[in-house]
Amino acid sequence: MSNLPNCPKCQSEYTYEDGSLLICPECAHEWSGNTDAENKEDVKIVRDANGNVLNDGDSVTVIKDLKVKGSSSVIKIGTKVKNIRLIEGDHDIDCKIDSFGAMKLKSEFVKKI
């Protein structure tokens, strides 16, 4: 039995070494043997327009009038958005805006309150 760690994505016990990398044959995930460095790489830091780090649950303010795609509505500058949720992708903030509903925003158009 080898003493290699299980796969961090699927927890498979069938990992193997290939040079300096560990590979999972079940989900094809590759990682270095140093799990602390891998965890730091997976964490994406989202910053607002002023460079402040955003976290889940923060409140932000819109800094520019934003046209709503597929509608004639506009989200006005100064609109407060509470309890944001950070997601992966181009629009990295998922939130609910009063009188608009669920929206996805880009972090470059908001500032932290």
From TrEMBL:
InterPro entries: YjdM (IPR004624), YjdM_C (IPR013988), YjdM_N (IPR013987). Residues 46-112 form the Protein YjdM C-terminal domain. Residues 4-32 form the Protein YjdM N-terminal domain. It holds the Pfam family YjdM. Belongs to the YjdM family. This is Alkylphosphonate utilization protein.
